[in-house]
């Protein structure tokens, strides 16, 4: 695209710069309005500066992408209510064989969960659980938070619904869900393996063996007296062991209360009126409430099974090649109807701010495209960044990695997607589908480079920093130390496996 008028180029660049600054640094001192408001501000400036007309701004908003985002978020809300993520979390600690085994489980489970339910959802659900797990097993938090964030990003690359930029690519390229999965899955599988090995090597000294679980329970069960004769070990005073002792004491108290309640109920001379001040216990509940409880539990089990079946049907429809947006929206509506109650509380959990952010970003990026600046930049790079050669793929990957961490991965895909595809179409022997999938792989894994490279990273960092207990500060530099080698190595080993 040729350059627009000089004043439009200048004003459009200013509007895009405002959007970029607030998207990357949402709490800048001179304008701390956040990412969502910054996106709307950038879009408004594009219209006010007359870089694009109001009608062009409305046309720039991609409704299929917003519909797909909304549908998948609603489905995720109902899956959370159906305890799916709780079951997945329980699988992390089931028969764990130590810190290294636990790290591998987090990598695999977060990758699979992200591929099916988006990386952002996975990080929102699992961050606090990982913090509690680290406290329980008395292991350092940093390796496990890095495993969660990096594996979620890598795993989300495998499907069209794994992350926002993949949604954009799937809609724009019209690549089917199945073809997308087959094209990227081998790279994702190898990438997760390599990333897990790098995590183990990088944090090996921090991943020390755990005390034996049997020893902990023996002490909790009554051997404390033996330990008090000498100085107790340091780990005995850890929060995890204290929690075990309190839990054991609570169980003993509940058993005592149950025995006392049964003995009171069997006495024939107990009067019908109970003296609460004297400490008498109320009579046991009658049978009708028990039947109601059983019925409600049965209804909940049936409802949970229905939620899982609807989700599986949605995935099957996506694999079959049905429309991405309407498949997700239909699954969301079916779950709302099956719930048979006011959908307001569930719909309130949808991240509408993300939908608004995307709407403003679509307008801002479209306006910046109309200035001609991205086209001219790509025109200079394109002859050296074609996917029909190793050097071309390497240069393209480097450009995408840098832009994804400077301008975020979704704007990068919106700016470069059509141009990369057009370049592949004009190159003999190059596959347009593979060009889109290479862009999806690189832009997604590029999110692991820095803390601000992916929304999933920021979610993990903020959730850990604001946790009610066991807070942890995942800083920019702590993330960067592992993010740099992991990003470039994983991208490099995955690129040859991308199929188009």
UniProtKB/TrEMBL annotation:
<feature type="transmembrane region" description="Helical">
    <location>
        <begin position="141"/>
        <end position="161"/>
    </location>
</feature>
<protein>
    <recommendedName>
        <fullName>Citrate transporter-like domain-containing protein</fullName>
    </recommendedName>
</protein>
<feature type="transmembrane region" description="Helical">
    <location>
        <begin position="350"/>
        <end position="369"/>
    </location>
</feature>
<keyword id="KW-0813">Transport</keyword>
<feature type="transmembrane region" description="Helical">
    <location>
        <begin position="436"/>
        <end position="460"/>
    </location>
</feature>
<dbReference type="GO" id="GO:0005886">
    <property type="term" value="C:plasma membrane"/>
</dbReference>
<keyword id="KW-0812">Transmembrane</keyword>
<feature type="transmembrane region" description="Helical">
    <location>
        <begin position="63"/>
        <end position="79"/>
    </location>
</feature>
<feature type="transmembrane region" description="Helical">
    <location>
        <begin position="181"/>
        <end position="204"/>
    </location>
</feature>
<feature type="domain" description="Citrate transporter-like">
    <location>
        <begin position="20"/>
        <end position="446"/>
    </location>
</feature>
<keyword id="KW-1133">Transmembrane helix</keyword>
<keyword id="KW-1003">Cell membrane</keyword>
<dbReference type="GO" id="GO:0055085">
    <property type="term" value="P:transmembrane transport"/>
</dbReference>
<dbReference type="InterPro" id="IPR004680">
    <property type="entry name" value="Cit_transptr-like_dom"/>
</dbReference>
<feature type="transmembrane region" description="Helical">
    <location>
        <begin position="305"/>
        <end position="338"/>
    </location>
</feature>
<keyword id="KW-0472">Membrane</keyword>
<dbReference type="Pfam" id="PF03600">
    <property type="entry name" value="CitMHS"/>
</dbReference>
<feature type="transmembrane region" description="Helical">
    <location>
        <begin position="480"/>
        <end position="498"/>
    </location>
</feature>
<feature type="transmembrane region" description="Helical">
    <location>
        <begin position="12"/>
        <end position="31"/>
    </location>
</feature>
<dbReference type="GO" id="GO:0016020">
    <property type="term" value="C:membrane"/>
</dbReference>
<feature type="transmembrane region" description="Helical">
    <location>
        <begin position="390"/>
        <end position="416"/>
    </location>
</feature>
<feature type="region of interest" description="Disordered">
    <location>
        <begin position="257"/>
        <end position="293"/>
    </location>
</feature>
């Amino acid at each position: 695209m040729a350059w627009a008028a000089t004043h439009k180029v200048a004003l459009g660049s200013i509007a895009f710069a405002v959007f970029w600054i607030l998207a990357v640094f949402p709490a800048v001192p001179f304008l701390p309005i956040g990412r969502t408001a910054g996106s709307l501000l950038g879009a408004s400036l594009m219209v006010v500066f007359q870089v694009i007309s109001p009608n062009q701004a409305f046309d720039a908003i991609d409704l299929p992408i917003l519909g797909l985002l909304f549908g998948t978020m609603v489905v995720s809300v109902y899956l959370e209510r159906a305890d799916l993520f709780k079951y997945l979390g329980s699988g992390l600690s089931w028969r764990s064989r130590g810190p290294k085994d636990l790290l591998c489980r987090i990598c695999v489970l977060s990758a699979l969960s992200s591929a099916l339910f988006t990386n952002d959802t996975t990080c929102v659900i699992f961050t606090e659980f990982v913090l509690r797990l680290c406290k329980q097993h008395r292991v350092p938090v940093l390796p496990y938070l890095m495993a969660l964030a990096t594996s979620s990003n890598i795993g989300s690359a495998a499907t069209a619904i794994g992350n926002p930029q993949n949604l954009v690519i799937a809609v724009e390229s019209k690549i089917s869900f199945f073809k997308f999965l087959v094209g990227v899955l081998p790279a994702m599988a190898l990438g997760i393996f390599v990333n897990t090995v790098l995590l183990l090597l990088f944090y090996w000294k921090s991943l020390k063996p755990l005390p034996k679980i049997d020893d902990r329970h023996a002490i909790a069960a009554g051997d404390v007296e033996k330990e008090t004769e000498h100085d107790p070990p340091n780990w005995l005073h850890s929060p995890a062991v204290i929690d075990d002792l309190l839990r054991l004491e609570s169980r003993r108290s509940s058993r005592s209360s149950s025995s006392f309640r049964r003995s009171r109920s069997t006495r024939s001379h107990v009067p019908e009126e109970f003296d609460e001040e004297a400490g008498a216990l109320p009579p046991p509940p009658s049978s009708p409430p028990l039947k109601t409880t059983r019925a409600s539990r049965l209804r909940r089990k049936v409802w949970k099974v229905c939620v899982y079946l609807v989700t599986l049907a949605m995935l099957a429809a996506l694999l079959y090649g049905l429309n991405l947006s309407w498949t997700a929206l239909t699954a969301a509506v079916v779950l709302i109807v099956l719930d048979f109650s006011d959908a307001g509380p569930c719909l309130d959990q949808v991240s509408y701010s993300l939908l608004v952010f995307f709407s403003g970003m679509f307008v801002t990026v479209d306006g910046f495209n109309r200035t001609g600046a991205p086209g001219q930049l790509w025109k200079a790079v394109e002859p050296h960044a074609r996917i029909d050669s190793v050097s071309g793929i390497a240069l393209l990957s480097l450009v995408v990695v840098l832009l994804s961490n400077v301008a975020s991965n979704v704007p990068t895909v919106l700016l470069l997607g059509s141009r990369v595809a057009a370049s592949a179409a004009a190159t003999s022997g190059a596959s347009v589908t593979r060009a889109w999938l290479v862009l999806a792989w690189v832009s997604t894994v590029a999110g692991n480079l820095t803390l601000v490279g992916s929304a999933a990273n920021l979610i993990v960092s903020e959730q850990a920093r604001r946790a009610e207990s066991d807070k942890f500060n995942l800083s920019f530099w702590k993330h960067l130390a592992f993010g740099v080698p992991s990003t470039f190595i994983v991208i490099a080993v995955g690129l040859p496996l991308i199929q188009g």
